[in-house]
Amino acid sequence: MRKLFFFFLATISESVAQKHYDGYQVFEVNAKDKVSLEVLAKLQNEKSDVYDFWTEPRIANRPMDIMVPPAFTANFVELMQTSDIDYKVKIADVERMMEAKRKAKPVIHGESGTRSGAPRVSLNWESYFDLPVIEEFLAELATKHPNLMTTSVVGQSYEGNNMNLVKISTVGSDKKAIFIDGGILCLLLTLMAIVTPSLQMGTVCGRKNRRPNDGSACIGTDMNRNFDFHWDEGGSSDLPCAETYNGGAAFSEIESRIIRDTILGIANQTMVYLTVHSYGQYWLTPWGYTADLPANYDQLYDLAVRAVDKLTAVYGTQYTIGSSTNVLYVNTGPSDDWAMGGAGIPYAYTLELRDTGKYGFELPAEQIIPNNLETWEAIKVVAEDVMAM
Predict the structure, then answer these.
(1) Which of 18-22, 183-187, 254-258, 314-318 has the lowest mean pLDDT?
(2) Can you give the residue ranges of the Peptidase M14 domain (predicted)?
(3) Could you tell me if residue 204 is inside a domain?
(4) Is the whole model's pTM more than 0.90, yes or no?
(5) Fewest Cβ atoms closer than 10 Å to its Cβ: which of 173, 190, 284, 330?
């Protein structure tokens, strides 16, 4: 990839005490009409501290996933029945699924391995890893490939976790760039690199950061509702307990401000912004704030189609392509809208990776490599187009 930069911003989620989910279940529900949809929307707004909506209740006749704690299962089922909302158990034991991910550990080589030339941190690409292991691995890669890769810490999250920026390039700083970030939402964070196999990490599920909200017992802001482009124009909540709480002001959060400042520092050379989330298998374009399309939507869509075609060719995984509002729902204050409309980056996309809901945010570790391999084929198409711009 001569004459091209890759910037990867690893915005790892806050490190909270490990929570266990014994007895938690994920229900798939389907609101058949506007009335039942309003029931679910009210439940999300008033009981977001109890029920974890993995899918937004925005469109009738579209399945959505809700994680329910054991103490509230009976109440939830009763509400679905009295409201005539179709429901079924999709994940019977969330803790068992998460425990399977916890069991796989990285292989740490001792000092003798380091002296013999072996890497100190060896990752098997079939497990999820925590922040210290990820940072050590990135540092080792940068040391081994100083002419290709550099790392830096561009700031700290509210709880003091590093926000790591990785730059991959073979040439000077005046060339075109692709900026990829992951970690704003609960996601499967993917680093696609040209010097090493792809690396994917999981985080604790949750849309929000960990900063307390003044005057509320509920913690956190939805980071993908906090960017200053048509902020708070619908598609977010002003209620601190809501999962889509927008923070009370654009760029109220240290994490979104650091992302903003990092992107603006290289915006003049950045041609593409990609933000990697899970889940749903969507390749989304702006805008989130309106059903209207960007002026360059035809070009955005054409590139997305060609990228997804290559992705699908690997394992047959199907993605839906379109603007956020028209494919999913109104979403104001997302990072991709701001990257295009605020920072002036010509191409911006949100990638919602595997799957379509069978596992949701708890994608099994054995899907890490297939997920990365197919996504990297799509990224390569985007990079080739950037080269020709």
Answers:
(1) 183-187
(2) 127-386
(3) yes
(4) no
(5) 173
